């Protein structure tokens, strides 16, 4: 349910330095109502700083920022009861029970979600009476997400919401974020997980060294950078590099120790021609693997580095 063209976040040429470090170096983007918008980048790229500026927790050095039409630096209080926020490593009062801290946060907002609903959404209903000090790291992380959700705010800000979670909890939280999206909420999230950005985000800003190096839907980013599909074959006598480079559709051939990857712009044509060649050579092609490019490939292509380095 996208409320088309209603801009809820507008950022123009934003910058912020800490001493010599340009944490945010002239970034611009807009977020529409109902979008899940992600900032994807390695540690230190400037994601948290950007988010802290958007929610009115940090001042900026330059640029313009509007969130729900409000400048977060000049009117933070008018903004804060309209947005829900989850931050990394927040200090939680460990002698409070789960429902007590969510109840406390609910009291900050004019139209909060029912406390039990927020707790149930993050899968902690069974733990609602547990003390925070009794929870695991992953459960505490989910409490901090519930603190954002209970706001029932127009925009939910999540800073690396699944870091430190086990795979099952991660998927559970992905479902929560997708259900927020289905309910028409705007979600702004930061992450360094490619699969998370690809699965959840309508649009992604890939950030590196305080700058946006690519912006678009995951599909646009992948298709804009990779016209070819990768096709991997086991390396055998059949896979002579020269002849494979001549197969119709093939633009590039990459040979590694035990496999050969063909980058093809016409995968159906390439496969059918390979079948003909293989049958002429009297070999079977059992282990063909077709791999779509991912956001990880996009980051690698644009920066020459893997996001986790
Ligand atoms: N309070 C601060 N004082 C000094 N330098 C800071 C401060 N906060 C962040 N930085 C630096 O600014 C840069 C951007 O940090 P930021 O936390 O915004 O990045 P990030 O992409 O969110 O990374 P992370 O995932 O590690 O939080 C980094 O070089 C970081 O060391």
From TrEMBL:
GO terms for molecular function: ATP binding; ATP hydrolysis activity. Belongs to the ABC transporter superfamily. It comes from the Bacteria. Keywords: ATP-binding, Cell membrane, Membrane, Nucleotide-binding, Translocase, Transport. Pfam families: ABC_tran. SMART domains: AAA. Residues 9-234 form the ABC transporter domain. This is ABC transporter. InterPro entries: AAA+_ATPase, ABC_transporter-like_ATP-bd, ABC_transporter-like_CS, ABC_transporter_ATP-binding, P-loop_NTPase. The lineage of its organism: Bacteria, Bacillati, Bacillota, Clostridia, Thermoanaerobacterales. CDD domains: ABC_DR_subfamily_A. It is found in: Cell membrane. It comes from Carboxydothermus pertinax. GO terms for cellular component: plasma membrane. The keyword Transit peptide does not apply.
């Amino acid at each position: 349910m996208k409320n088309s063209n209603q801009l809820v976040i507008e950022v123009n040429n934003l910058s912020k330095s800490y001493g010599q470090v340009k944490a945010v170096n002239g970034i611009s983007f807009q977020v529409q109502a109902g979008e899940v918008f992600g900032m994807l980048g390695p540690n230190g790229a400037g994601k948290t700083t950007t988010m802290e500026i958007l929610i009115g927790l940090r001042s900026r050095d330059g640029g313009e920022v509007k969130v729900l039409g409000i400048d977060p630096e000049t009117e933070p209080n008018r903004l804060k009861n309209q947005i829900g926020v989850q931050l990394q490593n927040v200090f939680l009062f460990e002698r409070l029970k789960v429902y007590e801290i969510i109840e406390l946060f609910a009291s900050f907002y004019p139209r909060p979600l029912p406390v039990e609903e927020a707790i149930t959404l993050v899968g902690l209903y069974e733990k609602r009476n547990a003390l925070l000090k009794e929870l695991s790291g992953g459960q505490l992380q989910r409490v901090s997400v519930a603190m954002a959700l209970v706001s029932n705010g127009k925009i939910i800000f999540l800073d690396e919401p699944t870091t430190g979670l086990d795979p099952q909890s991660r998927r559970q939280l992905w479902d929560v974020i997708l259900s927020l999206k289905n309910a028409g909420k705007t979600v702004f999230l930061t992450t360094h997980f490619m699969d998370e950005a690809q699965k959840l985000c309508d649009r992604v800003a890939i950030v590196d060294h305080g700058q946006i190096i690519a912006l678009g839907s995951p599909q646009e980013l992948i298709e804009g950078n990779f016209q070819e599909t990768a096709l991997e074959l086991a390396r055998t006598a059949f896979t002579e590099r020269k002849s494979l480079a001549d197969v119709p559709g093939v633009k590039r051939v990459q040979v590694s120790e035990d496999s050969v990857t063909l980058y093809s712009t016409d995968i159906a044509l390439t496969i059918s021609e390979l079948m003909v060649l293989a049958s002429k050579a009297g070999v079977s092609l059992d282990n063909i693997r077709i791999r779509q490019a991912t956001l990880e490939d996009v980051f690698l292509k644009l920066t020459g580095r893997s996001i986790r380095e």
